[in-house]
């Protein structure tokens, strides 16, 4: 049926112990000579050798030095089959490939003056023949030859071994990667690169050189990323006891890159937007994102590279685990509460929608057609939340013991989620079979809690029900193991410390749910308590408890847990926007809560800014059965206008009082001050048609954080002078593609249906670069994902534009095109006329997509 099934896994019939590759690099035509050292699997003797190879021009093929006659092998453009091999042998091939024509950015491709590779998940087969599967893990020796002037720097995985001049204008470099490494982690980078560099000694005593490479004019903007590498390296030593294992760690920045970055062994290749930064061109959010992506890729060196995957069904074993590790890194270095808020926002806005839409899938899918379509929020973010569930269940110390065991037992191997769970089961002495269900079931569980208080006896009962909704292919769901935190407050606001009677394990304010229903009961309380739940968001669930508005408001002041204080304010906002009877009361309570926060000089300004940022459109849309786009956006705007009016003096006062702190560079305090000032500015601009403050902030220069928010205010509120400010910004940064993406993103997200016409205008201009994924995301991705009024325009024009771009980009870069299609994942819940228009746009694509990526997604969307 065209699917790959988890149940069909078979160990490879041939192993590759060493891969020796020689590249004659040239953008137009590169020749790759490969020598694979092969051994048959003792359990599967006599099998033909089958290697992957996609669209390669085969120049020669030999075994143990003997050219192979035509009858011994077949190459059909996708797969090379060699017959008649028995024991250990060496297969040598030469192929020709064409990096310059490679717009899909998989395999070897050209980006500006660089030659680069991207091999995950199945790009290596576009470079040369190989068993391109993660459980085949040779050691590697790589020789790169190229013209010295065009390609002065030649990088590959592992350690540099030798380099020499070849005398004819060319030179060569030899690299050796001594660690068993699957082909998806292979990388080379060549070109006129320059670097910033740092020398350090690991906790195990290894001297390591860290280099961050970029095209020469970008090198001054690599310093921050270099520092981030060191911070990640030190953190992994301290928190997980994991040291770096090569003599060099190279990082390269590329302007053309399909995703964020790639953790190739010893040679990480990055989308330039996650490396290049200084205060004049990067926002505070950019700096934090750079640090977290740099850490993510670095941390893969153990969770993904040293211990890799048996097959692609295990993808979350490296991605969920590494997201968990990178969020812990950020939480340890900065504010744990703010990091949690950021993660939960993303989860609720995007992963919950994915889990409830046409593309829902388990964190470990049972089958796939195209693995590239499974680099999803579910695999990454929900996968990380599941690791957090485990961490909460066993505690930090036992979790660390489980991780030590996992790394020790699986080092140099291709592991499964069972291996991971097994190591933790051994370390904790717990049966984790119930926990494992998280990996198999799609859909976001709902935990509904009903309270009952008996005035006469003082008995208080919480009845807790869990249910996971049906998802494509999974109509019936089993209960999950859910660690649920709770607190009861008494009438004076003190925490009630008595433990309840329970039919589930309970400790320190945490109950472990594992059945469809559990009951907690407290005896003889003096009055009706007020409960709060899921502090720190210990499990990725939707929690339902029937709070009154007064109770939410009271709890928002009482809760000790900062994450929950923020969450309660979000609930008040949801109630104000979606509640029927109590919307007005909720608006008043929300306004009061925000007034208190704005007046609280002791509160972290960045936390206050998070509280001012109401639930976004996606989060709200996730909470209603049918989405009336214009109605929802309209109500949200009205609420913001009303709140801004209520708070105007406090907003002005905080905006002014934080001015000095906001000037203090990249310190946490300065970033925090800028976050609240910018939130205040956005609210104040609603009230001032002249946008005087935004104009002044834009004109004052300052950091990119300040300028870009001011420009957004001018553009999005259509203030006088917006066009000239945009023109000034555009000209000032015309040669910088990353900053150009920023203003393009602002134009594409102007909250007005007419923004669609601006997008069309840009697509007809020289700013449109369809082969550059960042530009496609800035223009079309922003429209589809972050501009509900234009994407869902009543005439269906937004859907048509995105669908026509999917068709146009499918042959250019199928992965980028397929990601755009994801914007339709919730189309069945959109109210008419949008639902019918979306169906029409999707149906119009049938028969027009050639790539497996696009076809797979379209089929699932329309299924
Ligand atoms: N592991 C990396 C995934 C990735 C990727 C996947 C498909 C196509 C292109 C890609 N580039 C990078 C990124 C990460 O999670 O670290
Ligand atoms: Zn990753």
Largest beta-sheet details? 8 strands, mixed
Which fold name corresponds to the CATH topology of the domain at 12-192? Immunoglobulin-like
CATH architecture of the domain at 12-192: Sandwich
Bound compounds, please? (3S)-3-amino-4-(1H-indol-3-yl)butanoic acid, zinc ion
| Strand runs, count | 33
Name of the CATH superfamily of the domain at 12-192: tricorn interacting facor f3 domain
- Kindly provide the name of the CATH class of the domain at 12-192: Mainly Beta
Radius of gyration (Å): 28 Å
Q: How many helices?
A: 26
Helical residue percent band: 25-40%
Q: Give the strand content.
A: 15-25%
Unreliable spans: none
Any idea what the shape is? globular
The N- and C-terminal alpha carbons lie at a distance of 15 Å
Strand order of the largest sheet: 6-5-9-3-2-12-15-14
The average pLDDT score comes to 98
Helix/strand/pairing class, anyone?
alpha+beta
Domain Peptidase M1 alanyl aminopeptidase Ig-like fold: 443-545
InterPro entries: Aminopeptidase_N-like_N, Aminopeptidase_N-like_N_sf, PepN_Ig-like_sf, Peptidase_M1, Peptidase_M1_dom, Peptidase_M1_pepN, Peptidase_M1_pepN_C, Peptidase_M1_pepN_C_sf
Domain Aminopeptidase N-like N-terminal: 101-185
Organism: Arenimonas donghaensis DSM 18148 = HO3-R19
